[in-house]
């Protein structure tokens, strides 16, 4: 075997950062030592692993082929080292990308469970839209993702964590708030404030309503749920948000859930990971504890 684990670690760090200098900082190496290790690896393998684009390093197709295999070897080496040093086998960092609803309402409890049961396992959380989480998993920015709705990319594996549903809401002073039911024609007349395109919430809403209403008056689009809630509570808008995001405001009387019999917006919240990723005990632990956490709770939140 002509290549070393150090060379693979350098390759992986350059792939992660897109930069030799940033990889050197990440590995606590000099830039010259990092460049030399990468050059030696490419020479031994007889293939270019990166295309140099100025200061940026982009993976070639050979680099893309090597990357999941290198990660597998590095993860196995880490487990061996921890075992011989008698450390807790479930220790290390997991980069988790989560969309807004699970990040706000479910992930904090999951992190608390992990902290109590596996104190050496660290979850590094990043909150993004569903599309950004999927892309982050594909780009190796996240080891594990939690998204709203489905992902149909065959490079991604998916496991349902739980289910929730979206609801159409208005302010208590909105004319529709006094109606027992609200028709599609009334929804078409309303002014809407919605989540941005790319969010899981918006995807579910659009797919549920696009074949029922031809022209919806979308007045504003925002990334942050609190902005949308506040605008709806204080104005003459409608919105559609996960029930988890509006439950407290409905209970307090600030918002009213509208009964729209023609709309059914149940959806899934799911774990996702790269299909070519080697089995990782840290990720399996997080998924297992997440599923255990939801046992005994309603199927639809």
From TrEMBL:
The keyword DNA-binding is annotated on this UniProt entry: yes
Q: Which PROSITE patterns match?
A: HTH_LYSR
User: Which keywords annotate this record?
Assistant: DNA-binding, Transcription, Transcription regulation
By its UniProt entry, which Pfam families does this protein fall under?
A: HTH_1, LysR_substrate
Describe the location of the HTH lysR-type domain by residue ranges.
1-60
The terms under GO molecular function for this entry are:
DNA-binding transcription factor activity; transcription cis-regulatory region binding
> PANTHER family, from UniProt?
HTH-TYPE TRANSCRIPTIONAL REGULATOR, LYSR FAMILY TRANSCRIPTIONAL REGULATOR
This chain belongs to the protein called LysR family transcriptional regulator
State the organism named in the record: Vibrio hepatarius
């Amino acid at each position: 075997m002509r290549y070393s684990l150090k060379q693979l670690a350098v390759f992986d760090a350059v792939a992660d950062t897109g930069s030799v200098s940033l990889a050197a900082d990440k590995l606590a190496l000099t830039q010259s030592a990092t460049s030399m290790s990468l050059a030696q690896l490419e020479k031994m393998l007889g293939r270019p692993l990166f295309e140099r684009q100025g200061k940026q390093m982009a993976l070639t197709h050979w680099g893309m082929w090597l990357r999941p295999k290198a990660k597998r070897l590095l993860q196995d080496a880490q487990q061996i080292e921890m075992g011989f040093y008698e450390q807790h086998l479930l220790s290390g960092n997991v980069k988790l990308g989560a969309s807004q609803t699970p990040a706000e309402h479910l992930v904090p409890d999951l992190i608390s469970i992990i902290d109590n049961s596996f104190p050496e396992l660290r979850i590094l959380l990043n909150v993004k839209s569903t599309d950004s989480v999927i892309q982050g998993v594909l780009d190796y920015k996240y080891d594990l993702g939690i998204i709203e709705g489905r992902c149909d990319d065959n490079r991604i594996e998916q496991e349902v964590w739980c289910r929730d549903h979206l609801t159409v809401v208005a302010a208590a002073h909105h004319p529709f708030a006094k109606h027992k039911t609200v028709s599609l024609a009334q929804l078409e007349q309303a002014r809407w404030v919605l989540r941005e395109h790319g969010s899981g919430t918006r995807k579910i809403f659009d797919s549920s309503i696009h074949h029922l209403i031809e022209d919806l008056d979308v007045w504003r689009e925002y990334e942050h749920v609190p902005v949308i809630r506040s605008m709806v509570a204080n104005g003459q808008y409608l919105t559609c948000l996960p029930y988890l995001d509006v439950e407290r405001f409905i209970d307090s009387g600030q918002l009213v859930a509208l009964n729209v019999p023609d709309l059914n917006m149940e959806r899934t919240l799911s774990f996702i990971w790269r299909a070519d990723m080697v089995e990782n005990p840290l990720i399996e632990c997080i998924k297992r504890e997440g599923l255990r956490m939801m046992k005994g709770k309603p199927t639809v939140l």
